Amino acid sequence: MEEKAQKKEDMSDWDEALTEQGAEAAGGESGDWSGLVEKGGEDTPNKRGAERILNQEEIDNLLGFSPDDGVLGEQNGIRALINSALVSYERLPMLEIVFDRLVRLTTSSMRTFTSDNVEVSLDSISSVRFDDYLNSIPLPAILSVFRAEEWDNFGLITVDSNLIYSIIDSLLGGGRGMQAVRVEGRPYTTIEMNIVRKLIEIILGDAENAFQPLTPVKLNLERLETNPRFAAITRPNNAAILVELRVDMEDRGGRVQMLLPYVTIEPIRDLLLQMFMGEKFGRDAIWEGHLASEVYAAEIEVDAVLVEQEMSLRDVMALQPGHTVMFDVSPQDPIEIKCGDAALTKGIMGRIDDAISLKISRSLKRPKMSLAAFENAAQTNSEVG
User: Fold this and answer.
1) Which of 21, 56, 76, 234 is the most buried (most CB within 10 A)?
2) Does residue 265 share a domain with residue 120?
């Protein structure tokens, strides 16, 4: 009994010791953790980057969106990767020349139309997606859909409200140097729509003249829209070229935007790839003329074929000196004149003194390819001679 009592006392002492150690350990660990929490986790050695939360500015930079940049601004991040498939207009050198001509022509036309001091400038030329452009149009605005007859496709011209009211104010006698007053919340009147229609027809006529040195095209105005969704002319994700023109009328003015989908200008893509007007790909007119003159002046050998006859190899092997081969042809029959395997003409065989002669009885056969270059070279040589 005494041994059992002693064992129980020893067990109770061990239980108390273990409980005290566990409490001290738990208290120490909880104290350490609470200290780390109070310090804000600054001393945590294994801090993970995934636990860090991005702010809105960092998310916009990652996705490539910025409130300060419009649709036409520089793009980066994921948005730049998505739009990397857009074809840069810089790969079409002729476009910039055409739009420079459009600026000069439109400046003159607008001065005649408004009887005011108008300056038209080219703000930018960029590549955009059609749906992004529709979402970026500041409303209210008037969108005009035009059709390029020779290219069998459509384009879009957008006139913003500032320019619309500036033109109306100028045509209807508004004071100079005054800002045009824009009335919000009402549709455009019939007079305003007709004035804008006339303005767009002038711009389309200037665009036809701008493209004229490159290729003839007829741009016809199809309709006017005030809702961008009704002005859809291509698929939302299709790429397009956006040209932005700035029209300044003293202290007032606005912007005109012309959008040409790439499918619209695809028929003249080869012309737009030229570095300068009239560039010839893979051809040199100087060397063509030189080659034509040299070929025309070259000397060649021709053969006068009296007759051709097919014989078997056995008959040819059986021929012996003194044998006579009979041809079914007379001296008065025409003789074919050949250069290699090509038949040129025919003539009659004769004799001049001790030499055999040929009198050409037919004109030279024209080959399938054009001989215009050779004839020009011959005419040049005859004039020089």
Assistant:
1) 234
2) yes
